[in-house]
């Protein structure tokens, strides 16, 4: 029976909003936001969209008016009572009251600041300027909107059953990965796929399929809204933007060299346990670990997000050994360009030597490769990064020169300050 | 928004009925029923379920109580006003008023007669006795109920997403066949898959997918209810039960030899055009055509339903040539054990030499092969046939000795009367 009122209601929407909640974002964004709110609240930053896949002509695929409508809709969002209650009341990694009353009060009245959008050739220039804790919350919804609008542009031409078969194929593809992964019952995997997901509904499906198919091996999702709706654990710690902005704020080379550790000193004060995860690659993992203060070796684990993952894990294991720590008590989280075969390979390589976990991103929530003619739904490499802080440009090196970002002279300066030598280049898939 | 009333209503059903309409049946059943109603109304027949796939233990898989509930539900059905209107008013192959007022009046008050059900070992003995025009209408719903209950028994153990992926895989599998078939835009295919379908909803999906994917190449469905609901042409002509019962009623060898032609003489009076399709294999195609009266060569086409299909088509073409007919004006309908590769092969072999059409059955509406562990959803060979008429046993020989049916001595007698020699055996897939 058709629910007539629902149908009429649905027709009243001017648009089909892609992002419908401020907590449809990665959990670590909120953790970092609280840290920034406490430590660097007045820092003025600019975030900018960067399409590393120039062969995807976003401005030809996506109508500018539609993009503006979606972004405007996100600016109209505020935290709902239920979302606030969930953030205030939830237990994250066994800890209650992760978010302070001061932060929650601020968050409840926060609205996302204005955006600047301009078409430049076949790409969009999309930037966000303002105070760091506000601007940083644009990253995930901006990426999700662009990824999903690009998908809709492709789906627009397809027939009803063609669409159903497209999703049938995508479901089958994911389920085959799940069947492959569950042959390793000790595996631990989380969904990290919000930012470059095919769509919200598809991510939600993927998470539920993982839950049924993997059981205890599926430990949670980085997406707060899905975690809330599906009664799952929200997963995440911190990301490159913290050291990037701290570094840009450094007044000289000496404080630049100290910046990545300052970030973690602030973090150390605020967090414990599973939230104490080192992300060492912003300016080269090797130098970072070599110069790290001893208290960092006491942290719970390391997240490997660029470079060859097995090499990164070996570097981490050796570092712990050198600092007198038992790697078998430590956690390595792999989160860069993973697919299920790589996950199993890394798991088999490191199980027993270190605790291993996986943050599975784009190839979990957006693996539409090979499912359409010309592969027009294949995921691509879109990021939204802090490009300046209080007027100074930011720099990222990572363990893969293909992921480096920033003005050329500054990249050279950072390489010198952080002692980064030759790096092996890796293809950036997603 | 949940439609509460609908949900409560759905919970009030004692069972989830598999067959919900008397026209959820093959169109040729109704055509034959009208012919029987006119010519052999008082013939007493017995129809019986025969599971050719003894390895499928139906009585262990299907609860007897559930089976009875489904069969009882079918006995409660009567033709609805809309169904009657559709049958009375529709155009079939361009002809209006296919069904006479007398037949419709009878059909509107018809209820299916009692059934006899008994468990024998791991199988069910299911028989129907009574007047021919009533009993014959049990065939399709009885088969559909048993096929779907067996499917439900397997699906019962599966998780929610596992189920969704099962159907995703089945959709993908069918769509790949559709993509293969549409490379031949001149192909003409109809759905003949009611009797051994996976389920009603699945057949309905398959028909709609064919409609979108194949466009004009999809010419209709044998299922009257789906044809009505989806605004399609209902397809079909006649089947083996007519010559089988006519033959069983023959009093001596001479009238036995004439029986298959008597059937078609009655049919000839009642039908024209696309409904004049010869089904020649009941007692061997070769002898049937050799002894056929000349007026039969004027019929529109021949349906090939057993034996090697290419051989059967060649026999038909040669017969038309020998009778002075132009095969290019004639229609060959292939309908036995087809899958998409075989369809394309036969199409390429015969296009230009004869008009070709395909009645695609079980591997359209029930190809779940390879989709579950142990292949427990693979289709199997279940039939429901007339086994006696006015006390005399029926016999079927067909062009494949593996499809022969009837008492041994009668099979020998029929072979003698119809001059059937050695036959090549073919595996019966479905």
Automatic annotation (TrEMBL), chains A, B:
InterPro entries per the UniProt record, alphabetical: N/Namide_PRibTrfase, NAPRTase_N, Nic_PRibTrfase, Nic_PRibTrfase-Fam, Nicotinate_pribotase-like_C
Post-translational modification: Transiently phosphorylated on a His residue during the reaction cycle. Phosphorylation strongly increases the affinity for substrates and increases the rate of nicotinate D-ribonucleotide production. Dephosphorylation regenerates the low-affinity form of the enzyme, leading to product release.
Residues of the Nicotinate phosphoribosyltransferase N-terminal domain: 23-146
Regions that span the bilayer: none
E.C. code: 6.3.4.21
Domain Nicotinate/nicotinamide phosphoribosyltransferase: 188-422
SUPFAM superfamilies registered for this protein in UniProt: Nicotinate/Quinolinate PRTase C-terminal domain-like, Nicotinate/Quinolinate PRTase N-terminal domain-like
Similarity remark: Belongs to the NAPRTase family.
Name the record gives this protein: Nicotinate phosphoribosyltransferase
Species name: Thalassococcus lentus
Lineage: Bacteria, Pseudomonadati, Pseudomonadota, Alphaproteobacteria, Rhodobacterales
Gene: pncB
């Amino acid at each position: 029976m058709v629910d007539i009122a629902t149908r009429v209601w649905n027709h009243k929407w001017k648009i089909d909003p892609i992002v419908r909640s401020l907590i449809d974002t990665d959990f670590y964004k909120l953790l970092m936001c609280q840290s920034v709110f406490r430590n660097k609240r007045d820092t003025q930053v600019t975030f900018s969209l960067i399409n590393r896949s120039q062969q995807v002509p976003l401005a030809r695929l996506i109508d500018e008016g539609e993009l503006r409508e979606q972004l405007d809709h996100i600016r109209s969002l505020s935290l709902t009572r239920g979302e606030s209650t969930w953030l205030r009341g939830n237990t994250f990694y066994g800890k209650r009251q992760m978010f302070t009353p001061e932060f929650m009060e601020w968050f409840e009245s926060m609205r996302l600041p204005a955006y600047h959008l301009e078409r430049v050739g076949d790409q969009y220039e999309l930037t966000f300027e303002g105070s760091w804790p506000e601007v940083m919350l644009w990253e995930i919804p901006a990426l999700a909107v662009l990824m999903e609008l690009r998908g809709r542009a492709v789906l627009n031409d397809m027939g009803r059953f063609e669409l159903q078969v497209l999703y049938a194929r995508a479901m089958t593809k994911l389920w085959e990965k799940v069947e492959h992964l569950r042959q390793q019952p000790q595996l631990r995997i989380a969904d990290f796929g919000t930012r470059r997901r095919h769509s919200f509904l598809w991510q939600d499906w993927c998470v539920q399929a993982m839950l049924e198919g993997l059981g205890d091996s599926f430990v949670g999702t980085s997406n707060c809204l899905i975690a809330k709706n599906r009664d799952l654990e929200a997963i995440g710690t911190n990301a490159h933007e913290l050291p990037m902005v701290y570094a840009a704020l450094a007044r000289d080379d000496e404080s630049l060299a100290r910046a990545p550790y300052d970030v973690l000193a602030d973090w150390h004060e605020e967090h414990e346990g599973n939230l104490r995860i080192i992300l060492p690659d912003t300016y080269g993992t090797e130098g970072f670990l070599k110069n790290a203060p001893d208290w960092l070796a006491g942290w719970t684990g390391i997240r490997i997000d660029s470079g060859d993952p097995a090499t990164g894990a070996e570097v981490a294991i050796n570092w712990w050994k050198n600092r007198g720590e038992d790697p078998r008590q430590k956690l390595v989280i792999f989160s860069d360009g993973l697919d299920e075969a790589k996950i199993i390979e890394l798991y088999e390589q490191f199980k027993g030597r270190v605790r291993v976990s996986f943050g599975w991103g784009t190839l979990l929530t957006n693996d539409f490769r090979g499912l359409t003619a010309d592969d027009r739904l294949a995921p691509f490499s879109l990021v939204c990064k802090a490009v300046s802080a209080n007027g100074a440009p930011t720099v990222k090196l990572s363990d893969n020169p293909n992921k480096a970002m920033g003005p050329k002279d500054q990249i050279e300066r950072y390489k010198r300050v952080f002692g980064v030598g030759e790096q092996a280049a890796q293809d950036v898939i997603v």
